[in-house]
Amino acid sequence: MRSRIEAYGRRVRLFLRAPRQLRPTRAGWMFLLINMGVGFAALNTGNNLLYLVLSLLLAFLTLSGILSEAGLRGLEVRRTLPGELFAGQPNAVRIELRNRQKKVPAFAIVVEDRLAPPPEIEDPIDGEWRLTKERDIPLAGRVFALRISPGEIQSRRYALEPEARGPLRFHSVRVSTRFPFGLFLKSRTIHAPGEALVYPHIEALLAPQPLFGDEGQASAVTSTRAGGDDPSGLREWTPGDALRHVHWKSSLRRDRLTVRTFDEDRHAEIEVRLRTAGVRPGEVFEQQVSWAASEVVAHLDAGMRVGLLTDDDRLEPGEGRKQRARLLSHLARVQPRDAGAEATDEPEPLREARQT
Fold first, then answer.
1. Which residues pair with 192 in a beta bridge?
2. CA gap 190, 172 in Å, rounded
C-alpha cells in the first residue's frame, strides 16, 4: 500500500513539475517593479496614456518569454568524457550542442554540467534532487555558446578537475539563457547520467634506473631483466639473475652457476609495490597511491613491462594501453585493508629494484 502511495505521489510531482525554471535577474526585478508602479498609477488615474505604456511593458515581457523559449526548445546536449581522467589536474570534457530547429537560432546559451548530488540531499523516491539550494548541487563545469544556427552542431570544452580518485557520477545538464533582454534566466534540465573512473594523481616522472631499496617500505619497485628469445652466450651467475635463465648442464660441468646471456634487445619487467595492510585511509595513503600510479605511467611510457603488487592482489606484468588502463583502474579503486591501524609518519617514497 505504501509503495502505491509513493508511486502515485511521484507521478503527481512529475506532472506538476514545471518544464522550465524561470528566475528574474536584478534588471528583471526592477522591470517588474516598474510594471507594478505603472499599473497602479493607471488604475488610480484612469489615464489612457498610462494604460498604453502598461500594455507595451506587458508585451515586452511576453516577447521575452516567447524568444527565450524558442531558443531552448530544440537544443540537444551530449557529453563526451576523455579516455582517462586524473585527480588533481584539468581534464578536457567535451560538450556537444545541437539545434534541431529548422528556422529558429539559439542565442546566449549556457550549459552547466552537473554531478550526482550528495546522498543527504537526494530524493530517494524519484532519484532527483531538491532544487531549493543552488549551492548544494555539484557543478562539474560550464560552457557558453553565443549563437547556434538552425541545424548546427557546436562543440565546447571545459576543464574538469576531480578532487579525488575513484568513481565519478554525472547526473544532468542544465541549459539556460538570458536572451533576449536579460530580464529573466530561463533554464531547462536534461537528464544525462554518466559515470567515469578517476585515476590517481600523476606526478611527472622519468622512468628511473632500477635501484636497491628496503622492501619494507610502503611502496617500492622491483625490476627483473629479461633478454630476447635467442641466447648469445653464457656467463657466471650474479645475484639478481632469474633462475629460469640458469644453464644447468654448464653449471654442473663447471661446478658453479652459469646463466644464458641474450641479445642486447632487452626489456625490463617492473613490479610496482603498494602497501595496503595496516594503513589508515587518509592523505598519506593517497600520496602512496599517487606515487605508485606515477611509477606505473613512467615505466610504461619507457616501454617496460609493468605489474602491480599489493598486500591483497597481484597483477601480472604487461605492456601497452590495456595494461595501463588495467593498473590505473585498480589503483583508482584500491583501499587500505586495516582502517583501524595507527597512523604512521609519512614515509619518503622509495623504489626498490631486486634483480632475480
1. none
2. 6
CA 105 and chain centroid, separation: 32
* Per-residue pLDDT at 134: 55
Please write the tens of the pLDDT for every residue from 135-187: 567 889 999 999 999 999 999 999 999 999 999 999 889 999 999 999 999 99
CATH tag, 15-199: 2.60.40.10
For residues 268 and 221, is the Cβ–Cβ distance under 8 A?
A: no
Helix (H, G, I), strand (E, B) or coil at 92: strand
pLDDT at 299 over 60: yes
Sequence spans of domains, the chain: 15-199, 200-227+266-356, 232-265
Whether the CB-CB separation of 175 and 190 falls below 8 Å is answered with yes
Query: CA-to-CA distance for 272 and 245, rounded, in angstroms?
Result: 23
* 223 HSE (CA, 13 A, CB side): 19
pTM of the model: 0.71
Name the more confident of 224 and 56.
Answer: 56
CA distances from 248 to 183, 229, 262 (A): 87, 18, 16
> Which tens digits make up the pLDDT trace of 243-253?
767 877 778 87
Phi, psi of 289 (to 5 degrees): -65, -45
334 forms bridges with which residues in the sheet? Answer: none
Percent of the chain exceeding pLDDT 90 equals 46
DSSP string for residues in 204-256: ----PPP----TTSSEEEEEEEE--SSEEEEEE--TT--GGGB-HHHHHHHTS
Q: Which residues of 332-346 are buried (b: 16+ CB within 10 A; e: fewer)?
A: bebebeeeeeeeeee
For residue 320, name the pLDDT band (cuts at 50, 70, 90): confident
What mean pLDDT is predicted for residues 77-101?
Answer: 94
d(CA 52, CA 60): 12
Location of C-alpha cell 641479445: 263
Helix (H) or strand (E) holding 199: strand 184-199
